[in-house]
Amino acid sequence: MPMLTYLDEEQVRSLLTWDELIPATERALADYSTGKVMQPVRTVLPIEESKRYLGIMPAVAKDVMGLKAVTFYPVNAGTGVATHQAMILLFRAETGDPLAVMDGRLITEMRTAAASAAVTSRLASPDAHILALLGSGVQANAHLEALRCIRHFNEVRVWSRNPEHARRFAQEQGVAATDAESAVRGADVIVTATGARDPILRGAWLKPGAHVNAVGSCHPNYRELDDEAMANILVVDSRDAAMQEAGDILMSKARIYAEVGEIFAGINPAPVAETTIFKSVGIAAEDLAAAKLVLNRISIN
Q1: Residue 68: predicted pLDDT
Q2: Do 275 and 133 fall into the same domain?
Q3: Are 41 and 168 in a shared domain?
Q4: For residue 300, what pLDDT is reported?
Q5: Which domain range does residue 25 map to?
Q6: Is 152 found in the same domain as 244?
Q7: Which end of the chain is more exposed for a tag (fewer CB within 10 A), N or C?
Q8: Domain match, 124 and 43 both
Q9: Are 109 and 139 a contacting pair, CB within 8 Å?
């Protein structure tokens, strides 16, 4: 048997690019919503409630299948150790042969932002030019990079539950730190990327036609958006996963308009010019698509 390929985070970083990942993520979500990817809702084992979790995320596509084991440790926040860490194992779908093992932390970071960018490209106004980031951590940074690939923003605002973090992020990225309401009012695209347990974004702040990527607080009892915000047009990456994991949806009893993959596949029309919410919980099909890109780049190189 050939030696199994292993790639660490820096190797993954050198091979994974936004210009390939964003369209690949769009295709993966369309494939998921049209039944071309098999995957269950992730299994999450609470090791210590609100502090330590282990998740298992398998998926099978036509030519490749894989498994991501991911740890979510909110207890690590502020310690210098990442709150999310992961490993991805890939197999050849036809024979079951193992193909590669790779670090999944960066893939998790990038595929989350890539999904938001793909959705924003379809749902946000073509002339969107103001971006608001609620949160100033890893996902805020990744979303800033990914969203700049699909829209030109001449104003970016950031808010964080920790004002010092927001000021540091603003200085590093050359953007403006402000309070949450000021960040959101008038913004065309908003990202919520926090671990909030209670709403940090009010629907009353949203301009008509704004688009929100809600990627944080993926827990049945946590939420980032209030009921008024969740009453807008709501799309998700997976109905099944959202109805088990998304506190924003479960606690507001919001109605899901479509999976984004249905919009990408042309099954449901894109609600252009509407105020839209994309509630992302992150699914294995996205990880599989990203890992496959990395594997393909190895073959090319």
Answers
A1: 98
A2: yes
A3: no
A4: 61
A5: 5-107+285-300
A6: yes
A7: N
A8: no
A9: yes
Parallel, antiparallel, or unpaired: how do β-strands 256-259 and 233-236 relate? parallel
Residues 97 and 140 in one domain: no
pTM of the model: 0.96
Indicate whether 140 and 232 sit together in one domain: yes
What pLDDT is recorded for position 4?
A: 82
Q: Which CATH number fits the domain that encloses residue 188?
A: 3.40.50.720
What pLDDT does 78 receive?
82
**CA–CA separation, 183 vs 253, rounded Å?**
26
Cα angle value 252/85/159 (rounded, 5°): 50
d(CA 132, CA 136): 11
Which of 37-42's residues contact partners 24+ apart within 8 Å by CB, and which partners?
A: 37/61, 37/285, 37/288, 39/283, 39/284, 39/285, 41/238, 41/240, 41/241, 41/244, 41/245, 42/241, 42/245, 42/283, 42/284
pLDDT, averaged per 10 consecutive residues of the chain (301 residues), comes to 83 98 98 97 94 96 96 90 94 94 97 98 97 97 98 98 97 98 98 96 98 94 97 98 97 98 98 95 98 88 52
| Spatial strand order in the sheet of 43-48 | 5-7, 98-103, 84-92, 64-72, 52-60, 43-48
Phi, psi of 258 (to 5 degrees): -170, 160
How far apart (Å, rounded) are the C-alpha atoms in residues 16 and 297? Answer: 8
